[in-house]
Amino acid sequence: MAKHQLSKSAFDRLKAEFDDLTTRGRIDVAYKIERARELGDLKENGDYHAAKDEQGHMEGRIRQIESILDDVEVVTAPADGVVGLGSIVAIVYEGDPDSAAESYLIGHVEERPDSDEVSVMSPSSPLGSALLGAKVGDVVTYEAPNAKLKVTVLSAKAQK
Questions:
Q1: For the chain, does the N or the C end have fewer beta carbons within 10 angstroms?
Q2: What pLDDT score does 135 carry?
Q3: pTM to 2 decimal places
Q4: Above 80 in pLDDT, residue 160?
Q5: 93 and 141 both lie in a single domain
Q6: C-beta separation of 83 from 131 below 8 A
Q7: In terms of domains, do 64 and 109 share one?
């Protein structure tokens, strides 16, 4: 099994970001560094230091994406009604009304939910792993740091 499991959309987005950073991004930063060097003394040149910092951050992101793409498996979300990788699941904690439901996208940290009202939950987290395979209406118990908690799955659907 691959170390990183991503939806097709997340894989495509990361691949596009990697391609952009390794081409246009590197050219843009090199141009900024060249322009800053023309301003003179590099010791006290804020533009030069800012461009070098930008280059360092960009190269770090390139390596991060490269590491993910080197060991990736593209997964398909399960059918609606079943919680799995790529599912958006709505849950409510035991004792709370349905109006207090929370929604999560089960997946890799690089996933981007379609809505700002949905957070990403790792499938390896205690709640995330307990939810995998659950169906709508199931009550799931998981071990939280201070107690065992129960949640009810209100909905589960594949992210589009």
A1: N
A2: 94
A3: 0.77
A4: no
A5: yes
A6: yes
A7: no
Percent of the chain scored above 70 by pLDDT? 98
| pLDDT tens track for 45-74 | 888 999 999 999 999 999 999 999 999 999
- Does 138 map to a domain? yes
Asked whether residue 1 carries a pLDDT value surpassing 80, the answer given is no
Give the chain's mean pLDDT: 90
Tell me the CATH number at 105.
3.10.50.30
Q: How far apart are CA 24 and CA 30, in angstroms?
A: 10
Q: Which two tokens stand for residue 122?
A: 């790792």
- The C-alpha atoms of residue 48 and residue 148 are separated, in whole angstroms, by 54
Domain range spanning residue 40?
4-74
Q: Coil, helix or strand for 117? A: coil
DSSP structure class, residue 25: I
Contact 128, 122 (CB under 8 A): yes
Q: How many domains does one find in the chain? A: 2
Q: Give 53's contacts (C-beta < 8 A, 6+ positions apart).
A: none
